[in-house]
Structures
1.
Amino acid sequence: MTFLVRSPAVFDNDEIIQKYIKSDKAIIVRGDGLSQSDVQHAWDEAGKTGTVDVVLFSVGMCCALPCYGFLPCNVGGTPKFGLSQGFYITPPNLVTQCFLNTMCTMPADLRGPNSQLRFIVVTSTGLTKSSHASLPFPIRFLYYFIRQPHKDKIGTERIAFHVSGKEWNNAEAAEPGEEIMGLDWANREGLPPFGSFKGFLLVRPLLLTDGVCLGDNEGAKAPYRVSEEGIYSWTVSRKDVGHFISDAILAKWDDYKNKVVNIGY
């Protein structure tokens, strides 16, 4: 496992990750996802231990998830609040630009429609009109105050749709715009062309909590719901999102490859 983090100290008190670090099974690369050279360095370091077969991109999400492969995270951006715009971060396209850097520096041997790379991207529910409409009213009201970070998440999905060959539905979510995407982003040097990579899974969690992992409990009823349609739900724990991702990677990749799914209780 290779982690790209701005501050390696984020794992100092994490007993689980420390075990992997001490056994050299986890490699910590210090850098910033907003720096293309730092992301390139992380790819290079990850490749030294063998072929990278899984990428988990969860910028903007707390690192309570178990991680496999190469993870750019902890890239910063302290939220601020304004009466007219709700919560916002600077730069407003932090997540989108980190994702562009990740895609533009992807090694040549991992690109193309026949690549075996499994690339998981964590965004959020409520990004499209239909998924937003499926949520409880209090959640929809809350999401009004985080519309700028959500627009950034939409930018990330826009790139994934482009690279995987999915047509963008402007009726569901408007184009994020130049403020988020940058000028002529689709022709940015290094970005895989339209439809050239089919190994994405986009995961849209409900409001994230620090609750326990219900997925580890055996039982006939699934502890959380996963659907390509909108889910009427309130929350899901980070650990259960991690449980789902682990299960999708290890056992159900053919079921979820190149799909967009919502997850919640």
2.
Amino acid sequence: MEKIGIITDEAADLPREIIEKYKITIIPVKLDWPDIENLPGENTFQKMRELERRGIKSFGKTSQPSPKDFIDKYKEQLEKFENVICITLTSKHSGTFNSAIQGKNFLSPEVKERVFVIDSLHASANQALLVLKAVDLIESKKEAKDIVKELEEFRSKIKLFAMFQDPKWLEASGRISSLVGNLLRNLVSRGIRAMLTFRKGKLTPGGIKIHATDTVSVLFKQFDKENQKPKDENKKIRVVITHGDDFASAKRLDVSDNVFSVKLAKKIPMAYIIIGILGVAVIAIAFIIIRKKIVKKSK
């Protein structure tokens, strides 16, 4: 039996090869969207495009995993590992962490003490980074309780820079009106985009970027700006890139594929870069946050 296993939810947006390599158990987020179930496409984004092509105006609903979902996965992992660390989607936007705790509390006392649950206070690429940090700590042979303590300290050091290409799915989801959608499109056409980031567990607006017709270059510049200290100290930085079925742009952010990024990599040593596709749970959160900001501004 191995020492420590990892459980996380689908919001972590980890690539399949990472999940399999480190034997990570993923708890799926529930998606209720009957209109796309039988549509062609390899992922939700491709199905969304097909929905749009057919002129169907619809958007699904996501819901958190149940305590039973966690109980089942705890038992499954505890058959293989002495202890389990469960890393969940931020509790500031989801009840997933609460379900994980409830699931743990349903376990017998002797089993319960082998399960450690941590609120990532993040999602998507950020949550993936916390999982990868846990992998590092496990491989360094640390005890589960010590790993959890280090993860709680580490999560405040993780940064997210996110931008969206087009507000049309905000409209489709009913989060914004067509009037506001047209306003946003007009701003985007003039190179003005909003950036999102995480602060204290909440996805929040991270400022407006001017001259942002090329989102990849804007993200690079923001990354460079926010990492002055690690750059000065010559520290390596691990990067996770997620995308909404835009692999070409994601690859442009890879230090091996872009002249701009190669120059940046010379200034900031990268540990390595992992590319994954954005999950529906994070999309739903982002739509809610953007709507709140837009509606407030438009009043």
3.
Amino acid sequence: MEEGYQSCFFQGHTSCAGCGMAIIIRHVLNAAGPNTVVINTTSCSEIATTNWPFTSWPVPYIHAAFETGGSVASGVEAALKKLKKEKVNVIVIAGDGGTYDIGLQALSGMVDRGHNVLYICYDNECYSNTGIQRSSATPYGAWTTTSPPGKFSIGNPTTKKPICEMMAVQGAVYVATSSVGYVNDIEAKVKKALTIKGPKFMLIHQPCTQSWRYDPSKTVELGKLAVETGMWIMYEIENGNMEITMEPKGKKVDEYLKAQGRFKHITAKEIEEIQKHVDSEWKRYKKMMKK
């Protein structure tokens, strides 16, 4: 670290041991620097970092309701423009529940109006903060408290909503995915996003020790494994043009699935179905990149 360096995210928060969210936020703010306003929707990140009278945020910080991250950020960006302080970074930090589901309307409006905001969703693929319910980010077959496996159900019956493609099609000027397993990639993409004027969206994959049911020491390892097996694709979309930034290493999905308790119920046949879906999605992304 440079002499005099001060982190923009303090230790002492109350997140779980092995929580990927805290790692992600630290590296997002390392990249953004202190000239930043953070809008943080209700989520694990808000609960764990704002225990009165303490805070982990040395930068200007606004807690927004689950559904209002995009709209609050829009107002902050408009106010800074009016004050001629347009060089201040405006960043939303939200979970998948406050992005894919409850916050989608406000996010869509933010992108539609063209606000110069970087919206970051850390995706732990369920509502971890409120009882491990499924969200539209929950992958096929996963256990949650509202998608339990049983005689007539595999677990979650749907695949993940293509939120990044939705944002790109709507007009976000920069869209990117990253992973807690690759913090240098997180920082590089945040820095790049903040040089681009207009609405930006980043989706960062975050294993959750509580809801995914794995050893807390394995968070980064599991994040990398998601990328290596193709369960999580790393890419950027700029003005409609896709570039894959890290290719899978050809590992089979069963290695990733068997490392988590939320998939312990699935059969070999179902693992084969998931592998086919992952292979199909990889081919689809490769075709999108060629266009």
